[in-house]
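Pipeline run #58 for the internal structure catalog. This entry was flagged by the ingest filter as a single-chain record with no existing model, so it goes straight to prediction. Upstream metadata was stripped on purpose; only the residue string is passed forward. Reviewer on rotation: M.T. Logging verbosity set to normal.
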Amino acid sequence: MEIGFIDWGLKDYAAALQEQETIFNDKVRRKLLSEGDISQDFIVCEHPNVYTLGKHGKESNLLAKEEFLKKINASFYHINRGGDITYHGPGQIVGYPSLDIDALGLTLRTYIETIEESVIRLMAEYSIKCERLKGATGVWLDAHSPKARKICAIGVKASRGITMHGFALNVNTKLEYFNYINPCRVVYIVVYFTQKPGRRNRQGFQSTGTFVIYNNDWYCNIFFNITWSRYRTFTAL
């Protein structure tokens, strides 16, 4: 199955959200009307500083007032994905897979697990051991220790098997921006660092990587090119 790769580069969050919704609504409409195959698209981008709150999240988890957000050049949006509050900003790879998961044989739960597995395997290519954490969505370093911290957040929406939103992978993200939120209802295990706790890879994040869509015993490879050579260190919350 062919999966297209789309790189939006650095894109304002509101513009990205509007474009996602246009793509999503068109695919849902075409599927309802049985207008042929639905394209499978893998979108990546980077955002200026922004906080997003999921549809069931609590605004009290944003600890900063509007005036302070202006001071730190950040914006805030309450959106329709799952999950609670998270931060997007420079130095973070944001992925918005726009997929027909029915055609891939995935349920919403196995789709989320697929994203987790994809990130875990990608990080292993850079000799960074990541894991799942029982009872929490996302990908973690030292998941089963008191030092557990998240390197990848996941929040998705699906309708009629069509997906939008996705994941945010910290590469050299400014971790201080996480100090202004209670992130994703896992405050009790998030450790804040004054220095980035990442592990430096040998060549930087400048190569062709592979995200592996995983479902039971079959694989569908999604290849994408990462050209942001300034990304040198993976960091975790």
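catalog note: The radius of gyration is 17 Å.
catalog note: The CA atoms of residues 91 and 173 lie 4 Å apart.
status: ready for reviewer M.T.
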